[in-house]
Amino acid sequence: MSSKQHEKAAISLRDVCVDFPVFNAATLSLKNRMLQSMTGGSINRGAHGHVTVRGLEGITLDIRAGDRLGLVGHNGSGKSTLLRVLSGIYHPTGGTAEIHGECVSLINISLGIDPEATGRENIRLRTAMMGLPPAESRARMEGVIDFSGLGDFIDMPFRTYSSGMQLRLAFAVSTAIQPQVLVMDEWLSTGDEDFRHRAEARMRSLVDNTEILVLASHTRSLLEATCNRVIWLEHGRIRASGPTQDVLDDYFG
Ligand SMILES: Nc1ncnc2c1ncn2[C@@H]1O[C@H](COP(=O)(O)OP(=O)(O)OP(=O)(O)O)[C@@H](O)[C@H]1O
């Protein structure tokens, strides 16, 4: 266990912007420019004709231990981009992001899986990517294999698994450690009936025990049941921020 784990989790964003360069958007038609007013961030053309999409703009936000923060917003409003900044996957192209606390992101649980490697090798790889030292990774190995329910298939290449088996492994390893900061895009639910029940219990325990939860969702009841504050994003900016019920009434109303 690292000494970092004894510090409380805290996140502080100051005037964060994220710009995406787009290399094959030479001809932006008027139609495209009109669409941008309904969805997505702003499309800009620089001095040399380079096109960028601004995914986030001027985001200032403090998240403290105990916060359960929900993110709402229409398609392209910046929810996934913000989740990626909070997980350290994206660095802001403007402003600053300070993130203290060990973070697990359940945005794309199959990312980084090597299809040629066996299930066991993939557990080793993924736990290393999650920052676990080799001894801790070894100590958790049997627990992850048990949870996955893959039995002898654990020593077969990942590419030979059915899609449900692939998700079982990805879920079992992604949820193997209790993070201080948990970042999710919708509620993760996967597998057949039996696995779904076990996965639900594991998710509930992770969510209950994490210091900070950030959950992007389009489902009002999920946000109401899980979050104590909500941010409404629009065109990459914060349109409203406050107690869950107030923001959801405005957004869904
Ligand atoms: N890799 C990328 N390259 C270029 N533009 C991007 C990239 N990723 C996101 N964007 C742009 O950034 C803006 C925000 O996208 P983002 O995926 O964060 O939205 P979202 O709120 O998660 O949408 P959804 O609800 O549809 O998942 C959009 O305009 C999108 O086009």
TrEMBL record:
Pfam families: ABC_tran
PROSITE patterns tied to this protein: ABC_TRANSPORTER_2
InterPro entries: AAA+_ATPase (IPR003593), ABC_transporter-like_ATP-bd (IPR003439), ABC_transpr_TagH-like (IPR015860), Bact_Polysacc_Export_ATP-bd (IPR050683), P-loop_NTPase (IPR027417)
Ranges of residues in domain ABC transporter: 38-252
GO molecular function, one term: ATP binding
Gene3D superfamilies: P-loop containing nucleotide triphosphate hydrolases (3.40.50.300)
Keywords from the named record: ATP-binding, Nucleotide-binding, Transport
PANTHER family: TEICHOIC ACIDS EXPORT ATP-BINDING PROTEIN TAGH
Family label: Belongs to the ABC transporter superfamily.
Name of the protein in its database record: ABC transporter ATP-binding protein
Species, as recorded: Spiribacter pallidus
